[in-house]
Amino acid sequence: MTLVKESPPTTRKARSTAPAVGKRRGRRENLAGYLFMSPWIAGFVLLTAGPMAASLYFAFTDYNLFNSPKWIGFDNFTKTLDDPRWQKSVEVTAKYVVIGTPLKLLLALGVALLLAQSRRGQAFYRAAFYAPSLIGASVSIAFVWRSMFSDDAIVDRAMSVFGVHAGGWVGNPDWILYCLVALTVWQFGAPMVIFLAGLKQVPRDLYEAAALDGAGPFRRFWSITLPMISPVLFFNVLLETIHSFQIFGSAYVVSNTYCGPADATLVYTCYLYQQGFKNAQMGFASAMAWMLLLAVALVTAVLFWSQKKWVHYENDAEDAR
Predict the structure, then answer these.
(1) pLDDT tens figures, 234-245
(2) What gap in Å lies between CA 28 and CA 96, rounded to an integer?
(3) Are 303 and 234 in contact (CB under 8 A)?
(4) Which of 30, 58, 204, 250 has its CA at 20 to 30 Å from residue 93's CA atom?
C-alpha cells in the first residue's frame, strides 16, 4: 500500500493567493504614483499640450480673437513670405543669434578658464560673475540698460572720451541691436558655471605631460582643453542658441515697446506679439509661432548632426582603443 502525502491545504491556498496579492499591491503603487504625478499631468495638458494643439489649429484659420476661427489652410504661412516686416524680423533675429551667442560663449569660457585656477576669493568671484544671470532677464534691468545707453547717458559719455559719438544707442538704428547683444553677453554666468564644471573634469596629468613635451599654453588649450570639454561646449552652444531665438523681454523694453527705431530691434517674437495681441491676428501669430518652432528644430538637428565631427566623448576614445 502506497501512501500519498498531500500538501497542506493552507500551503496551496497561500501559493494561489500570492499572485493576486502582488497584483493588488502593484495596482495600489501605480495609483499612488499617478496621484503624485497628477498635478504635473494636469499642468502639462492644460498649460502646454492644450495650448499647443489650439495654436496649431489657429495657424490654419483666420482668427482675430473676437470672431469664430475660419479655416483658410496654409494662407497664414504663405502670407509671411510676402510680408516685409516678417522678413525684417527674421533678419534681425538671425543677426542677433549669430553675433550674441558666440560672444556670450567666448566670454563665459574665458572667465571660466580664469576661475578654474586656484586663487584667493574664488567663491566670491564665481558668485559675482554668476549674479547677472539671475537678474539680467528682469524687466527692471532692461529699464536700467535702456537708461544707460540713452542719449548723453553714461555709455554715450564714456564713448565720447574715445572720440565715438553715437548719440545714444537706444535711438540709433545702427547701434540699438548691439545694445541688446551687450545685455545678453553680460548674462554669461550660466554657461560660465557649466564650462567651469567641465574644466574641473579635465585630468591635470594631461597638462603636465603636454608641458613636459614642450607644448605651450595655446597648444595645451587647443589640443587638450577644447577636446575634453567639447561635450560641455556643445551643450552650451545648443542651449544658448535656443535661448537667443526666444529673445523678447529685453528687446521689447529697451525699444520702449515698439521694437524700433526703424524696426532695428524687431526680433521674431516681438513681431509675433504685435500681430497676435496688438493687431489681434491670432491665426497669423500662431503660424509664426509654429514656423519659429520648426526653425529652432532645424537648427537643433544641424547642431546634433555636426557634433559627430567636433564633439569627443569618453566612450568614443574607448571604442577607438
Answers:
(1) 999 999 999 999
(2) 53
(3) yes
(4) 58
